[in-house]
Amino acid sequence: MNHTELTERFATLTTAHLADGCLRARLSVRCAPAGTRAVLPGRKLAGRVLPARHSGSVDVFLEALTSAQPGDVLAVDNRGRLDESCVGDLITAEAATAGLSGIVIWGLHRDTAELREIGLPVYSLGSLSTGPLHLDDRAADALESATVGEWTVTTDDLVFGDDDGVLFVPAAQADDVFRLAESIRDTEHRQAAKIRDGVTLREQVRFSEFLAHRESDPAYTFRQHLRAKDSAIEE
C-alpha cells in the first residue's frame, strides 16, 4: 500500500476504528501515551514510521531525513521528557520540505505559532519554551527504532493520528486491520442511523436477551453476545 492509498483509506476511518480493528485481529493495540495531541486539531496523519532517538542534538533528525521516503512520519523518541522541548520550527519546516507527512514526538515541542503556520501535522505531549537541556552520547542504532510510551517502533510500522491520538500498526498486518476497521465503521454507522430513527442501541444488540442469558450463565460476557449478534460496539 503506497502513501496515497494509505491516506485515502484512512480518510474515512478514525484511530478508534483502527484500534478496534487491531483488537479484533488479535494484535497489540499500540497507542501513543494519553495526552499525545495535534498542534493543529482536526488534521489527520498517516505514514510509515521514520524513527529517531533524540540525545540532545538535532543532527539525528537531519540524518533521518536523508533516508526518508515521501509520506514518512518522523517518530521522535525523547523518552517522554517534560523538562525540555526537542522539535521546533526549523526541524518541522525541514521535514515538510523533505516531503514528510508529519511528526510524532514522545516529548514536547516549541515554536507553536510557527508550527501552526507551517501546517505540517505535529503530535506531541505538549509545548515548552526551552529547547534541549541535555547532550548525551548518541546510540549507534538511534535511527533504527524509536520508543513512544511503552511501544518500540521501526520502519516496519505505520503510524496514524487524529484528534483521539496516535496509533501504530504493523505494516505487514495493515490490510487486515483496515478491512476489520472498515467493517466496524460500517456497523457503527448503521447503528447510529437506527438510533437517530428511534431504535435504541439496547434494542439493536438485543440487550434483554443478553441479560437473560447471563442470568442462566454468569460467565457469559457481553462481548460473546456481541459476536453472536454481529455487533461492533466493543471490538
From TrEMBL:
Membership in a protein family: Belongs to the class II aldolase/RraA-like family.
InterPro entries linked to this entry: RraA/RraA-like, RraA/RraA-like_sf
SUPFAM superfamilies, alphabetically?
RraA-like (SSF89562)
Protein's name in the database = Putative 4-hydroxy-4-methyl-2-oxoglutarate aldolase
One Pfam family, please name it.
Answer: RraA-like
Which catalysed reactions does the entry list for this protein?
Answer: 4-hydroxy-4-methyl-2-oxoglutarate = 2 pyruvate; oxaloacetate + H(+) = pyruvate + CO2
Q: How is the subunit organization of this protein annotated in UniProt?
A: Homotrimer.
EC annotation from Swiss-Prot or TrEMBL = 4.1.1.112, 4.1.3.17
Q: Which CDD domains match?
A: RraA_family
Cited function: Catalyzes the aldol cleavage of 4-hydroxy-4-methyl-2-oxoglutarate (HMG) into 2 molecules of pyruvate. Also contains a secondary oxaloacetate (OAA) decarboxylase activity due to the common pyruvate enolate transition state formed following C-C bond cleavage in the retro-aldol and decarboxylation reactions.
Task: Name the needed cofactors.
Answer: a divalent metal cation
**Organism for this UniProt entry:** Amycolatopsis halotolerans
Q: Which domain of life is it from?
A: Bacteria
